[in-house]
Amino acid sequence: MYTKGFIRLNWITLVLIYLVVIAGSLVRTTGSGMGCPDWPKCFGSWVPPTSADQLPENYREVYGEKRVKKVEKFAKFLSAIGMKETAEKIKNDPATYEELPFNAGKTWMEYVNRLCGFLAGNGVLAVFLWTVFRYRKRRKLFLIAAVNLVLLTFQAWFGSIVVATNLVPWTITVHMFLALVIIALQLWIIRIASPVQQKQIQLSKPVRNMVIVVFLITAYQMFLGTQVREYIDELTKQGFGRESWTDRFGWTFFIHRSFSWLVLVMMTLMFVLNRRSKGDRSVNVAYVILAIELISGVCLAYADMPGLVQVSHLLFASVLFGLLFMQILRMRKGTEPLSDKTERVELLDERLAR
Fold first, then answer.
1. What is the CB-side half-sphere exposure of residue 145 using CA atoms within 13 A?
2. At what angle do helices 281-302 and 251-276 cross, to 10 degrees?
3. Considering the domain boundaries, does residue 133 fall inside one?
4. Deepest of 5, 28, 47, 261, by most Cβ within 10 A of its Cβ?
5. How far apart, in Å, are the Cα atoms of 176 and each of 46, 189, 280?
6. Are residues 190 and 229 in the same domain?
C-alpha cells in the first residue's frame, strides 16, 4: 500500500511535466528558444538580466565562442555513434553559430521554461528518492522511477544541445519525443501507486483495439506536428506569409491532416461503441479532448490565430496521448462487454430472488 503523500507527489510531478510542455510550446511560439544563449545559466547568471546594459558590449562574441566549443563536442559525439554526415551538416551550417541580440521578453520566457523544467526535475528526483527509501523492494516501481530520472537528466542535457545548435529542427523533435516518454513513465508510476488507477476498466474488444490504434496514431501525429512546425519556421525565415504556407507544405502536412480525420472517425466509433456497451467514461473524455485538439488544429491551418492556439493544440494532444496510454495500462484482458455482463448478473439476481 502506498501512502497518500507519495501518490500526491506523483500527481504533482505529472502536472509539473505538463507545465514544461506548455512552457516549451510558448517558447517555440514566441521564438524565445535562444533567449538564453548558455545553459543551465542564462547569460552567465542564475537570474537573467532585464536589459542589455547589464551585459558586456562583446557578449555576443563571448557566447558565440562558447557555442562553437559546444557544437564541436556534440559533433564529435554524433560522429562517434555513426552520424558523421549529420555532424558535418551542423558544423558547416552558418545558422548554427548565429548569435541573436538580447531581448528581455524572450530571455525571461526561456528562463520561465527552465524554471518549470527545474521543478519537474526535482519532482522526478523526489519520486525516485522516496521509492529508494520506502519502496525499493518493489522492483517494477523502482526500475520505472530510475529510468524516468535518467531520461529526465538526459532530457536536460539534450536541452543544452538544442540551445547550443541554435534550434536545429531534428533536435527539437527528439526533445519532444523524450518529453512524451517521460509523461508515459510518470503515468505508469501513478498507475502502480494509485488505488483508483489500479482499478481496471472494462472495454469491449473492438474498443480496446481501437484505443491501441488511436494511441499509436496520436503519437505519430505529434511527431508529424513537429515536422510541420519546422516547415513553418523555415518558410517564415524565407519570408513566406501564412497565405502561401499550404501551397508549399510537403506530404508531411497532408498526412498529418488526413490522419487527424482518421482519428476523429475512429474516436467517434469508439465513443458510440463505448456508450452501447456501457464502458468507461475515460473514452468519452478522450473524445472531447480530441474534438478540442482538432478544432485548434483547424484554426492553426486555416486561420490567423494567436500563438495561444498553438500552445493549446500541443497541450491537448499531449493530454490525449497520456489519457490513451493510461487507458491501455488499465484495460482488462476480458472481451465481454459490460452490458452483457450486467444483464447476466441481473438475471442471476432474479433467479435467486425466486
1. 30
2. 150
3. yes
4. 28
5. 25, 20, 30
6. no
How far is residue 245's CA from residue 304's CA, in Å, rounded to a whole number? 12
Residue 69 burial class via C-beta count within 10 angstroms: exposed 0-12, middle 13-18, buried 19 and up: exposed
What's the rounded Cα separation, in Å, for the pair 253 and 189? 35
Report the domain count for the chain: 2
pLDDT, tens digit, 9 for 90 and up, residues 258-268? 777 888 888 88
Question: Residue type at 230?
Answer: E
Torsion, Cα of 173, 179, 185, 191 (10° steps): -120
In a domain, 247, yes or no: yes
- For 250, residues 6+ apart whose C-beta sits below 8 A from its C-beta are 231
Say which amino acid occupies 291. Answer: A
**CATH number of the domain enclosing 224:** 1.20.120
Quote the pTM value. Answer: 0.79
Distance between start and end Cα atoms, the chain: 41
- Three cell numbers at 325? 496510454
pLDDT tens digits for range 43-60: 888 888 888 888 888 888
**Judgement on whether residues 179 and 244 belong to the same structural domain of the protein:** no
Residue 18 pLDDT > 90, yes or no?
yes
